């Protein structure tokens, strides 16, 4: 019992050290449960009204930019619990809640506007159908991409470069192979995260994997 009590205390301390991450994750849990209680037809209509598609951005930009970040398309919450713990929580603990949230907001908003702007141009040029103005576009992946990228500055060189290469490959390959507006959004969000370097200056010593490995070896 003592072991589990101690483990529970450490988990709770970790959660409290990244309040924004886990409050957001709790909201996503509630909204995901709500989606599971909707019929498929109602769910699509409901989400489309909270989507950052061209039509909704034209009519209610602020509302949908906020609302779209509170829902997960597909209804699978556990993968996001893992990703938030691996990326968002360390970033919030490192940057502080305000700076971490600034990275999330800038990546989410700018990547959305740029990708939807590209889609609008595609519609005007006849590359995409006019019905694409109602495309379902919700979720937290742009903010996540921005945070994943900004964490490159948390790692000392030369270890930073393999991590950065992996980030650019993960978000760049889909855009190169079969470009869609969401692929563009993810790649742009990662670039925006890298552009948030001014927010990371003075945030303490960068992590050295070599030191961690040495400690683990004893």
UniProtKB/TrEMBL annotation:
Q: What is its main location?
A: membrane
Looking up InterPro entries in the UniProt record yields: Rhomboid-like_sf, Rhomboid_2
Can you say where in the cell this protein is located? Membrane
Does the record carry Membrane as a key word?
yes
Q: How does it sit in the membrane?
A: Multi-pass membrane protein
- Transmembrane annotation, as ranges: 20-39, 98-120, 132-156
Keywords attached to this Swiss-Prot or TrEMBL record, sorted alphabetically, are:
Membrane, Transmembrane, Transmembrane helix
Q: What is this protein called?
A: Rhomboid-like protein
Source organism of the structure: Streptomyces hyaluromycini
Upper lineage is:
Bacteria, Bacillati, Actinomycetota, Actinomycetes, Kitasatosporales
């Amino acid at each position: 019992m003592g072991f589990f009590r101690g483990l529970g205390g450490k988990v709770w301390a970790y959660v409290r050290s990244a309040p924004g991450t886990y409050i957001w994750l709790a909201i996503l849990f509630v909204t995901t449960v709500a989606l599971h209680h909707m019929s498929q037809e109602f769910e699509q209509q409901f989400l489309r009204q909270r989507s950052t598609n061209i039509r909704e951005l034209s009519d209610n930009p602020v509302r949908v930019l906020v609302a779209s970040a509170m829902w997960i398309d597909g209804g699978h919450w556990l993968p996001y619990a893992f990703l938030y713990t691996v990326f968002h929580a360390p970033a919030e603990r490192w940057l502080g809640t305000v700076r971490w949230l600034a990275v999330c907001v800038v990546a989410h908003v700018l990547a959305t506007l740029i990708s939807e702007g590209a889609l609008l141009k595609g519609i005007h040029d006849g590359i995409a159908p006019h019905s694409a103005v109602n495309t379902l576009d919700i979720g937290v992946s742009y903010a996540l991409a921005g945070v994943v990228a900004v964490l490159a500055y948390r790692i000392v060189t030369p270890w930073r470069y393999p991590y950065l290469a992996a980030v650019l490959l993960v978000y760049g390959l889909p855009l190169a192979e079969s470009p869609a507006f969401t692929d563009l959004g993810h790649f742009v969000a990662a670039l925006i995260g890298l552009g948030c370097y001014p927010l990371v200056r003075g945030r303490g010593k960068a992590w050295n994997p070599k030191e961690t490995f040495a400690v683990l070896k004893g």
